[in-house]
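Morning F.,

Quick status update on the modeling queue. The single chain you submitted on Monday has been processed. Sequence for confirmation:
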Amino acid sequence: MFFILFCFGCSKAEPDKPLKVGVLADNRGGNPSHRAVLQAMKKDGVEVIINLGDIVHPDKGCHWPDFIADMQTVYGNKLDEVSARYFLTVGGWEEQYVNRHQKKKDPKIEKKDWNYKGKHHWPGYEPDNKSGQQFYKDYFKYKERAGKMNSLILDYDSFGDYYAKYKNFHILSLYFTDEWDEDGKFWPGDNPEERKKGQKKQVEWLENHLKNIRKNYPDAVIAVIGHDRHWVDKKDDSFKGRLCALLKKYKVELALCGDAHEYKHYPDPTTLKFMATASLTKGKGGYFLITIDGKNLKVENCNDDGVVLDTFEKIKK
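Structure tokens below.
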């Protein structure tokens, strides 16, 4: 298998080399598949890493230190450099873990504290995302990273939504998770009117940024990311359907989700839409390798050893 690289408007000046972005999801803490994916992405020359959520799973004994141990094993003393270009979706087990860890000052969470059977018992103070805010503030230090390694966090709101820019690659992460939307409620005692207000703010937030990016950065490649499964394929007038309508309106190049632990491509004439497989079990995990060459895109679905299983290309004239 081979690929033809396209070069438009080449000159004597040394052209910028293609930007490589790695995307992984649902690693749930330290495990052999997660480490293998990190090793493969490092070998690929990935500059930017996107993690689509569910970083840890305390109920399974997988904690933040396990995740960091994997990162250190692969990146060693360059971990700070890597973390400056490491972006997360908002939502999933990692938030609840950090919140409980902050409350109890103990990383070992008792089973009875979870009370999680698909219902909305969230002592993690969802959905105001205080735990997610704490996660980013204490561990990934998003605001402190602004401006480092050409990575700019340009906006970060009270929901935990953020807009980041790296070179000509723009990332918009929205706080919508499966926990918010199941059974039509965000949490026990949900106020439907407040929920509608929050949804309206998120739709407006996304559209304002997409409009400004297209105006100010005509060569931008945009990725909209979220943890929630299948959100990229909603076509009705629901909250997520309105978000997807904006992808088409502003010709967003990439939309990414995780959560369901499987790889999926959603055919769409405007936006390359994908769900990432989980990096949970060695031999069954994987990642995306996204190559951005100007405004041209290539997305490769790889297994956790870096073998390419599927390829999509989008050439913009």
